[in-house]
Amino acid sequence: KIGYGFGDMSSSMFWKIFSYYLPIFYSDIFGLSLVDAGILMLVTRIWDGVSDPMMGIIADRTKTRWGKYRPYLLWIAAPFSICGILLFTTPDWDYAAKLVWAYVTYILMMTVYTGINVPYGSMLGVMTSDTNEKTVFSSFRMFFAYGGSFIALSAWEPLCNFFTPMFDGSKATGTQFAMIAIASACFILFLLCFLMTREHIKSKSNVSIGSDFSSLLQNRPWWILIGAALGSNLFNTVRGSVVAYFFTYVICVDGDVSLPFFGLSILFYAGLFLSVGEVSNMIGVALTVPIAKRFGKKATFIYSNIALAVLSVLFFFMPANTVAGLWG
Fold first, then answer.
1. Is residue 62 within 8 Å of residue 71, measured between CB atoms?
2. Helices 220-241 and 2-25: crossing angle, nearest 10°?
3. What percent of the chain has pLDDT over 90?
4. Which residues contact 19 (CB under 8 A, 6 or more apart)?
5. Which of 52, 85, 231, 257 is the residue whose CA sits 20 to 30 A from 108?
6. Is 60 exposed, middle or buried (0-12, 13-18, 19+ CB in 10 A)?
7. What are phi and psi of 213, to 5 degrees?
8. What is the pTM of this model?
């Protein structure tokens, strides 16, 4: 269970850095216009929507001595890490060439991310057939995912600030080496996930790809879950992608501010703000299993989203004078 959790810990470290810091990297360090960066992310997301089911079809028909899904953790761990480093690499080229580089590296990164993350997620179906055990596995997965997010988000800006002075103040190189540190950890975590897990259930796909696709289109619960996933991702993406800009251009120019508490000065920056959210997510995951057992998974999901909607609305009604008093 710990080994399985390591997989999503690795994926989440990358995903949260991409979601929260890649937009401001492209605009403020790499040098893309906001319009070009936005179109780039739209195109990449469209490709991601196509590549995910393609990878599912490929993985479902894979046969090796390690199983059908697990070997991808070994095969793609290194490309996964390398593509992350290339994504945060800024070549000294003209604007048009850099834009091409951004498209190539981002699409390549998301393709490799799909190549390792889709099989990883599918592994749960062949590790155990027990429904309650699957819930426990999912809880381990999400707990480690939020733990990885906490580490990555809290460490990203300090790592950038640590490496930048080593290269004559070059933020581009400092950011690249920060990603090298994160990517190295992700590589090790996926290898550990491969070594510490096993596929215990043998399954075989005996239907054609066309039949698979037809069944999927007629699967009403699948469409409902797709809608829920789209809504959830839209909320998280919009909220998360503006945090770095908010701290940089609204709270203070440098993206951090010192807050005195009990005589201590706490450095408050975007990563710390996001990390607090990840700790809260970890607490929520720890509570999921007992709550789901008590009320059922469907009811837990519905009422959690209602609470999320209410709290999100209340968040934006915080009085302006309260915020002003907090920042002193």
1. yes
2. 50
3. 50
4. 236, 237, 240, 241
5. 231
6. middle
7. -65, -40
8. 0.82
